[in-house]
Fold this sequence. Notes:
By secondary structure, the chain is of the alpha/beta class.
Amino acid sequence: MTESALSALIEISHFYGIDKDYVIAGGGNTSYKNDTDIWIKASGQSLADITPEGLARLLRKRLQEMGQKLYPTDPVQREAEVKADLYAACHPGNTARPSVETSLHELIRYPFVVHTHPTRVNAITCSKDAEKSVHRLFGNKALYIPFVDPGYVLFTQVRDRLNEWRASHTTDPQMIFLQNHGVFVAGETTLEIRQIYSDIDNTIRKLLPPLPGNNPLPVNSSITSVLPAIRMIFSADEMKVASIRNNSLIEHFVASPENFSGVMMPFSPDQIVYCKARPVFINESDPEAIIRSCSLQYTDYVNRFGYPPKMIAIRNIGLIGVEDHARAAETMLDVFEDWMKISYLTTAFGGPNFMSPRDIAFIDNWEVENYRRQVAKSSAHKGRAEGKIAIVTGAASGFGAGITKWLHTEGAHVVVADLNEAAGKQIESGLNALRARNKACFVKTDVTDAASVERMVHETICTFGGLDVLISNAGILHAGSIDEMSPETFDRVTRVNYTGYFLCVKYVVPVLKLQARLKPDLFTDIIQINSKSGLKGSNRNFAYSGGKFGGIGLTQSFALELIPFKVKVNAVCPGNFFEGPLWSHPENGLFVQYLRTGKVPGAETTQDVKAHYEKQVPAGRGCRVEDVMKAIFYLIEQEYETGQALPVTGGQEMLS
Length: 656
Ligand SMILES: [Zn+2]
């Protein structure tokens, strides 16, 4: 019995959890109770992907005792004591952390409770006519709870209002609307809950104006000369990401200070927790004026509130979320977009009703506490490329794919730049499926096309807000003797391997220089993945070798030009990557080709061919991604080496 009830609970949790109209940023919670126990979504879990292990199990008797107890009036002391009692009320076998809203679920006398913060419901609960509208639309089927401080105070408020209700009703309400918060829906079955939710939604939907669309709109190209500076202003202590978003809804709100005043104040404590109570609006259009205004407003904000802002809007450009990692920035932008929708929709119910300055100050105090705690701890595991933003060109296969994955594992945000859309997107989605704090972003890029490279940099800035490492890795190889080589093929190889490197550097450097201006102690890196053929000529492979030699010349020259901006420019020269597709591809890899053409006398299998080539390496094996990564991390971490070509060849090539 319990088992089937819990699987129904998981199912309905997923149903609402994946719907952004109901649940954003892992908010909301669901519960099931029998006579003795309650199972509720644990803290830190999200409804969208919760499993039975994500439910906390508590003893109802112990929770009821908490309802009778007297707690201290000091909020910090009180909430700490409530939390300790909640933990003590857990079932002996429980391992999950119960959330602060558990006691609210316990109060409601139905087996199933689904609590969410739906956008359309909050169009009412966050409006001036909230109470009136709830009564008009839902009559005596709904209980309305005016706003109070969250936590224990909210609990006592709901408890007292329910007791009042029970004096005049025979059954409990199945809808409880909480002002500036959301709704609790309760029922005997999850089917009943779905029915009630859909009745609520149908009733409200009819009264709402249509929302401006939220399909992505392009971000003004001037953002490349603004956002890297903003990211630096915010990265005084630790490197942040700054993601920008634009769509019709955002466009409406950032069109003027007047429009933006509709979201200058928060509606709910959740919004403050994710986005801070006050966003920053920049009413400028010239890039330099935007940077100046941002810098001034940042300092002013920190002085006034004791913590930095997180949300910035730039007039007629878009909405920016600044966070430690890209996933958090994305969540924050989702929360703020919901904030915009609610504000827009409240016009149907008398206009927006923001939290009062006193209520904001109460949450702000918690936030200052949390911020201090967060700064004090920050002991989470940090990778070798933690928080860095890296572009890898030619990232869809071979060394490029390996480097991209490795940088991501070590905490970097990676731009997967490649011409091959299918393979590139696969790498992007594979990395993002890991649900790490850092993200991957595919940008279709042709390094031989200036416009395409410029777009790659623009996309990088829009997604992550800056750049710390460029790995210029895209390359092609067409071997052939002088007789065989056509001018067209030679030109193509040169354009990818040589000109492509220049184009990437050309469009990346303004970003790196801008960052250096705002944060003069910051070192950034340009690393070309060269080759051992860039150090020594290669027989019947001159198109490739010549371009790679040229790459060393570019590296040395760029290094001289860019060192005043603390941009290090180095090349890594790997030996042959025998395990990569160029050599090992089962149909057209070099091992198969050399076996077919009899290039290695006496070889009968591709293994024989491979062994022949391995023997030519003093270290006895081919170069691997991990060898290249050690070289890359060395170049990134050191601060006294530039213009170098670092061989990673197992002793096959030595510098003279
Ligand atoms: Zn809630």
